[in-house]
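Example record for the data management plan.
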Amino acid sequence: SPLSEFAALAFEHGYSVAAPDALVLWEAQFGDFINGAQIVVDQFVVSGRSKWGQTSRLTLLLPHGYEGNGPEHSSARLERFLQLAAQENIRVANVTTAAQFFHLLRRQALDATARPLVVMTPKGLLRLKQATSTVDDLALGSFQPVLDEPKDDHRTVKRLILCSGKIYYDIAGHEVRGLASTVAVARIELLYPFPVDPVAGLVASYPELREIVWAQEEPQNMGAWRSIRHRLDEAAANAPHVESVQYVGRPWRASPSEGYPTFHHREQDRIVREALGVRGS
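Corresponding structural encoding:
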């Protein structure tokens, strides 16, 4: 059979419309394969409800994460989906634990309001021990659009790093994380519709907070930054003690990522250290 993402996704979309009670999932081998099916996304998945009142539960699982595999296997073009998201036409998520993934898919199947769902699914989290969940998390938990870092005393935090997806584990597990005692790291698991109230509540829970940092792996003209920056500014504006909202990530680039593993690891290390505010080699 031909390697045609256009044909595969068109079929899955049609099936999901014809069988509205089914949870139809299409997984790309790598996230960038969505490039070959972009016409289906533009013409049907994101605009069908507005044009024809047609929607579905179609779920796209797109491996997305910077792991040194080069520009063709790093990006599912998250920024495209966020640019196309409006009028609550789709849902876009980048979850970080097994329980979050389970509850997200369960909610997608059971939610009375059917909408297409786009999930960034980094391959690096498939076997990552820190991303596993307990049986209780699976049986008794629910999907959380925002995950705060467990910290005994929020009053000691001056800088809050907000991120989404795999980079959380790069930051939380970095060798210099312990040197940033006044820094907390939180995850935004649902990027659209943006969880306005949970993020505002998160920011307000840190009474001595001075800085909000958005950290991402993607270049500044890609990823979530440009789509959610106004939301972060709103959260900061409602917390008078917050003085700034900053971006940390790759600079503007024409290509999604580096082509050499050495350069990739060097850049990842720079991003994490800058986000934590810890310099050095």
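Summary line stored alongside the record: The radius of gyration is 19 Å.
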